[in-house]
Design goal:
The complex is a heterodimer of chains A (117) and B (113). Chain A is mainly beta and 117 residues long. Helices cover 0% and strands 47% of the residues of chain A. In chain A, strands 2, 4, 5, 8, 9 and 10 form a 6-stranded mixed β-sheet that branches. Chain A has a 4-stranded antiparallel β-sheet with strand order 1-3-7-6, with no helix packed on it. In chain B, 0% of the residues lie in helices and 51% in strands. The chains are: A mainly beta (117), B mainly beta (113).
């Protein structure tokens, strides 16, 4: 498709289980971001990939969270040993390569709603 | 470090009234500024952005925002609210092209008939 695609759209998991969330960015976009949206918390930055550079992991809340991006395209966010406070909507976005100031828009997917029970 | 402050987590206006959603930012370099809208159960959609040039930026659905460097503000306005404008609005800042966005906590806009 033409937009950012995330799967699954909804995920219910038991506390302590691992989960994987997938993001397919827009073709050709070199930047990819993961954000977390919790009720009343706004949008929290998690991790950022830009081309072949080392990812900016400064937003990951704990070592239970990790993400990878294979072949500069698809990204997977993994949460190990999930906790109830991990329940949130996880949003992925992508944007074109760095360049002219005009090319700055990030396009967001619909998100994955994660519920840890 | 960059940051965004949105004053008012909830704003309610009457249909046809002026919409004003406030956003103040801090950035160590000339900022890129954005407003995104999120309708219920949907992802974020870009309303408008400021990167360089004209400080009054027009976006979709009749919204506009003005970059005021002296006030470090980027308030969002619309002259006449419509029922379909009811949504959550997020202001965001980044420090370079394609860089990560730092978001405000959002303002939920309600439009009364």
């Amino acid at each position: 498709g033409a937009g950012v695609s995330q799967s699954p759209s909804n995920k219910v998991t038991e506390k302590g289980k691992d989960v994987e969330l997938r993001c397919d960015p827009i073709s050709g976009h070199t930047a990819l971001y993961w954000y977390r949206q919790s009720l009343g918390q706004g949008l929290e930055f998690l991790i950022y990939f830009q081309g072949n550079s080392a990812p900016d992991k400064s937003g990951l809340p704990s070592d239970r969270f990790s993400a990878e991006r294979t072949g500069g395209s698809v990204s997977t966010l993994t949460i190990q040993r999930t906790q109830q406070e991990d329940s949130a909507v996880y949003l992925c976005a992508s944007s074109p390569r760095q360049g002219a100031r005009g090319r700055t828009e990030a396009f967001f997917g619909q998100g994955t709603r994660l519920t840890v029970v | 470090a960059q940051s965004v402050t949105q004053l008012g987590s909830h704003v309610s206006v009457s249909e046809g009234a002026l919409v004003l959603l406030r956003c103040n930012y801090s950035s160590s370099v000339p900022p890129y500024l954005f407003w995104y809208v999120q309708y219920p159960n949907q992802g974020l959609q870009l309303l408008l952005k400021y990167t360089t040039g004209a400080t009054l930026v027009k976006g979709i659905n009749g919204f506009e925002a003005e970059f005021k460097k002296s006030e470090t503000s980027f308030h969002l306005t619309k002259p006449s609210a419509h029922m379909s404008d009811a949504a959550e609005y997020f202001c965001a800042v980044s420090e370079s092209s394609g860089d990560k966005l730092t978001f405000g906590t959002g303002t939920r806009l309600a439009v009364r008939p």
